Amino acid sequence: MGEAALQHPGALILGSREFTGNVPFKSRWGNRITRWVYRMASGLSIRDTQTGLRALPPCSLEQMIAIEGERYEYEMNVLLRIRDMNLDVHEVTIETIYIDDNAGSHFNPVRDAFRIYMVIFRYLFSSIASFVVDYVLYWLLLGLSVMPVLAYALARLVSSQVNYRLNRYTVFGGRGGKYAMLKYYALAVVQGAVGAALVQILPGILPVSAAVIKIPVDIILFMISFVIQRDFVFNKS
Questions:
Q1: Residues 90 and 14: beta-carbon distance below 8 Å
Q2: Please, what is the angle between helix 148-166 and helix 180-205, to 10°?
């Protein structure tokens, strides 16, 4: 770990387990699930998100001290702030020996996992909240006999402003720069046009109503939009 820290002075060094051989169930599957959710939330691929063996680069210590959280929550907070701190990650494979099925571990699979996943899902809360605003308003407009395409556009206009502010200031910590809103609404226009076209066309092809077809359409567009926002719209300080 020390040698890797010297070779990569601007990187967070992680001692990463391979999870091969006789690995306790909670350790193997807990890491697999957390690794997948972390990759979705951050766009970064890390082999061992729960490792506590780390070497911190001196350039990041002031920022590391300011990060909130305790125990596993703090460790995940650090990983979620990597992009904000402009840090690279370098993983060093370490040997892991589990004694008595890892009975000495302080990891509580319920309490500590809850902390970890609550941190991760803060990245997803903004889009979920905006989806609720969007879908409720869409239903209300349909109830007022507004055309599906117009109802979709009006609901998207309101929810997009909610989503933009939550994403920029709550999810991505104010990142994005002066062109963030321009990039966000360029994405919103394209996404809205695609979504409006689909809810107008698909009910005539499939035996489902416009209100029902909106659910799968928005789920797919949400996943695509999240990745674009993460990697393009809010990718810079």
A1: yes
A2: 150
Tokens of 101: 């099925």
- Flag whether pLDDT at 126 surpasses 70: yes
Find how far residue 181's CA is from the centre of its chain.
20
Cβ neighbors of 97 (< 8 A, separation 6 or more) are: none
Cβ–Cβ under 8 Å, residues 23 and 98? yes
Here the tokens at position 40 are 């979705």
Q: Token digits for 196?
A: 């409006």
Residues in the chain: 237
Distance set, CA 166 to CA 5, 67, 125, 133, 185 (Å): 36, 20, 9, 13, 14
pTM of the model: 0.62
List, for residues 140-174, the tens digit of each pLDDT value: 988 888 888 888 888 888 888 888 888 888 877 77
Kindly list the domain boundaries of the chain, sorted by start residue: 2-109, 122-233
Helix (H, G, I), strand (E, B) or coil at 8: coil
- Structure-token pair, residue 48: 């061992």
Helix (H, G, I), strand (E, B) or coil at 67: coil
Buried b (16+ CB within 10 A) or exposed e, 208-219: eebbebbeebbe
Burial zone of 111 (CB within 10 Å; 0-12 exposed, 13-18 middle, 19+ buried): exposed
**Which residue's entry shows tokens 């077809």?**
213
